[in-house]
Write a structure and sequence with these properties.
Elements: H1 2-13, H2 18-53, H3 58-61, H4 64-83, H5 89-112, H6 120-127, H7 136-155, H8 160-203, H9 213-224, E1 232-239, H10 242-249, H11 251-268, E2 273-279, E3 282-288, H12 293-310, E4 322-329, H13 336-351, E5 358-360
Parallel strand pairs: 4-5
Antiparallel strand pairs: 1-3, 1-4, 2-3
């Protein structure tokens, strides 16, 4: 069973467990996106060269129409890679389609000299799997299907002895190509795993396990600079009289209070939110794609109530309280600092109020 599971993981998840693979596959696809775009530009140039050369070379002339349409396809696909989302499924489909086109090209090259065993097609069996980070299972289907169709095609035009040579070579190199794809994918995916672990450590607040100030700033800035987004809510909160907690119970208890509050916030906001520790006893919660005032009130009240219930002091009769400043993003702020300043002003208004635990920033 262990052996079968290992084989399954390598064929379906590049040697990882399913959950770990799903966590980093988006990063892998995005990283490979540039490679795919460059590949299609290169293909367009090659097929354009072959099309022009076919007017002067009789061996290439028979494939002239194919070269022309392959050039058009590569050019159009190159432009698609300028507008497609990097993590969508369409680029993945296009790269498999392009690999198939290259195999057809290898078939035409082989058919031009039917007395000689295939070489271009076999070279493509080894080269093309290197352009794709994906489940090796799909590349195995691509290579096996293309090889099968190639052999059927060559059987119709080549002598028996030449075709048998192709059969042996193509079978061997199809298997080699599949193994190379498995190995290359597993090595490259593990690089993303290592990079992800390093980034998590770099971006994580050690005491709470939430995002640190640097990670908060980057993710919120990325959201604010996205032209497709114009709604958000920033909550900035801190613990009331935190210095007194440190002075009364000691810094170890103060750290425990911060850690407990961090666990509460991290457990409550787990979907479309950015949650982190800004520093000291100050936290930030940023809600994406929402500017509803009912949501503001409900979330703020839940934080105030939940903080008191989930953070325990040595004196069970005592409970912490938090104050919250809220700034609503509506597409006007250009960076994190602009929005944070508004939420920070509202926070100090809340801390100075005797009857409000949260205040929403209002422009003067």
């Amino acid at each position: 069973m262990i052996g079968l599971r290992t084989v399954r993981n390598y064929l379906l998840y590049c040697g990882l467990e399913r959950k770990e693979y799903n966590e980093i596959k988006k990063d892998a696809y995005v990283s490979n996106f540039v490679v795919w775009r460059v590949l299609h530009v290169f293909m367009a140039l090659i097929f354009l060269f072959l099309f022009i050369t076919s007017f002067f070379n009789h061996l290439l002339k028979s494939n002239q129409i194919f070269y022309f349409f392959a050039f058009l396809y590569s050019s159009i696909t190159s432009s698609f890679f300028l507008i497609l989302k990097k993590d969508s499924i369409v680029p993945q489909f296009l790269i498999y389609l392009s690999i198939t086109l290259l195999f057809i090209f290898g078939g035409f090259v082989s058919s031009n000299n039917s007395a000689v065993p295939a070489t271009t097609f076999i070279a493509l069996l080894l080269i093309t799997p290197m352009f794709m980070i994906d489940k090796p299972f799909w590349m195995a289907i691509e290579l096996t299907g293309s090889s099968t169709l190639f052999l059927i095609w060559m059987h119709a035009i080549k002598s028996y002895d030449t075709w048998m040579t192709d059969l042996i070579n193509v079978t061997i190199f199809t298997i080699v190509g599949i193994f190379l794809n498995v190995i290359a994918n597993s090595l490259r995916i593990k690089e993303f795993v290592l990079t992800r672990e390093i980034n998590i450590q770099k971006d994580t607040d050690e005491l709470t396990g939430l995002k640190n100030k640097s990670a908060l700033t980057k993710e919120i800035n990325d959201f604010l600079t996205d032209s497709m987004t114009d709604k958000g809510i920033m909550f900035v909160l801190d613990i009331d009289h935190f210095k007194a907690i440190n002075d009364t119970y000691g810094h170890d208890i103060g750290d425990r209070v911060i850690a407990q509050l961090g666990r509460f916030l991290g457990g409550k906001f787990v979907t479309n939110e950015v949650t982190g520790r800004f520093g000291g006893d100050e936290f930030i919660v940023f809600i994406k794609n929402n500017d509803n005032m009912d949501a503001v009130n409900n979330i703020a009240e839940d934080i105030v109530k939940g903080a008191s219930q989930n953070v325990v002091l040595p004196d069970n009769k005592q409970m912490i309280t938090v104050s919250i400043g809220v700034a609503i993003y509506s597409g006007r702020e250009t960076n994190y600092s602009d929005l944070f300043k508004k939420a920070d002003i509202a926070l100090y208004q809340a801390k100075g109020s005797s009857n409000k635990k949260y205040v929403v920033y209002e422009s003067q």
